[in-house]
Amino acid sequence: MSRIGRRRRNDDDFLFGDDLLGGEPEESAEAIEGTGQAAARLADGSGFLIVDGPGAGGVSDHSNAPGICEAASLPERDEALDGTLPLFIVHRPYFFWRSVPRLLAQLHAAAGDNLALGVSSWLPGATAQSHADFSLSCAAAAVRIVDPLGYLAEPQDVRVKKPSDRAVTLAPYLRSGVTSIAELLDMQRERGANLLLTSGRALAPSDARRSVAAACDEGDGALAELKPGERLALNLTVSAEWLQRPQLLDALLTELIEQQQFATWHVRVQWPSPTQAWTQPTDEKLLAGYRKLAATADDEERRLLLPQTGLTGWLMLASGAAGFGTGPSGSTQAFLEPVRGGGGKPKIERYFERQLLHTVERTARSVLTGDPGYAQCMCPYCRPLLTGAAWSHEYAGLHYLFSAGTLTAQVAPTVAGRRGTHGAVGRTVRSAIRFAADKALTGNSDPAHLRTWDHHL
Known about the structure:
Elements: E1 38-42, E2 48-52, E3 59-60, E4 67-71, H1 77-80, E5 87-91, H2 100-111, E6 116-122, H3 128-137, E7 143-147, H4 165-170, H5 173-176, H6 181-190, E8 195-197, H7 208-225, E9 231-239, H8 241-244, H9 246-258, E10 264-270, H10 284-299, E11 303-306, H11 310-316, E12 323-326, H12 330-333, E13 350-353, E14 358-361, H13 366-369, H14 382-387, H15 393-410, H16 413-416, H17 420-436, H18 449-456
Parallel strand pairs: 1-4, 5-6, 5-12, 6-7, 8-9, 9-10, 10-11, 11-12
Antiparallel strand pairs: 1-2, 2-3, 13-14
Helix pairs in contact: 2-15, 7-9, 9-10, 17-18
């Protein structure tokens, strides 16, 4: 099929049905390229992190760039997972993924003293070589994950669409549901992962304790297959019900606490259908469950990573989560129950407002920018985004990720002071509530989550 006449694709079409394109996705026409190289000298003398222009995202032993700034040393994987700094994980997007290494380098240069960075890719989403190249290009990412998405083979009470033919070709275990843990770990290693995951099976609420125990048994098998120096995270997928129902959450936590061999928990939660992409859930039971999960992990000195949680993951840093993942699109920001329709509709022009802790439609921005207290974003992407002749969804997505990353650094213990991350998150949320007051924001532009967040802090 020619490019003309194709319907607009959702960024996860490659994974679920309607597999229109073969091979790797083309770069968007909006790919960002610097006109000249800029670099940051790493504090430990190991080289120069290229933050713009040719080679952006990598490290060089020399640089002739006219603009050289100073940056923190790049942390190793184990440093990024020791709980000292919050871990901000960028989920690889389907489009413009080649812009991610540059974004990570710029985030490290801007906030690397107070932030650890990671990347997460979906194993069924790209070829082994593409994954490996991407992992290698992200020099600023201390943690690199290639998620098997095992819940697609056995969804239990998680609602998903059927994987596309291409996804099954790239990850054959999605069709059979059977592969050895050794093979699954090898697939992640070949693709450049340095934090290995178990399959990510979905847990069954009908037999909660046995379901969690089976996932932990799989984890024990994976631990036995690790090579010297490797790290493993126990990878679980659950419906919102597991966090909303105390008896299910207690069963989950009881089993996890007893399994002391798993230092890192990677827990994906599917948000209920009323939640829309680009918004945050306001269900109080769900948020209370997240808070208890994060607090328990912190109390037990485990590292809780919350993939696909958008700013809800940022909120949970206040309760003890070690890190969270988000991406530039609706499907990488949140793990939502699938809905019908959506194909063929123009993409809505959206912009993340840091002062509001929320993404608004572009048409609603005048309500905010007219406020004398409005602060213009100074990230590397906003000038071309806001002055360009046409709206760039790529720039908008990268602006969101840069903003979310610097928000994460802002609440790190290293800058939050004696009152810690909880206090820093609370102050930021209350500031957003004050900024939102008396502003006529409606629909998905309304930051309805802020009051619920404030109540839970």
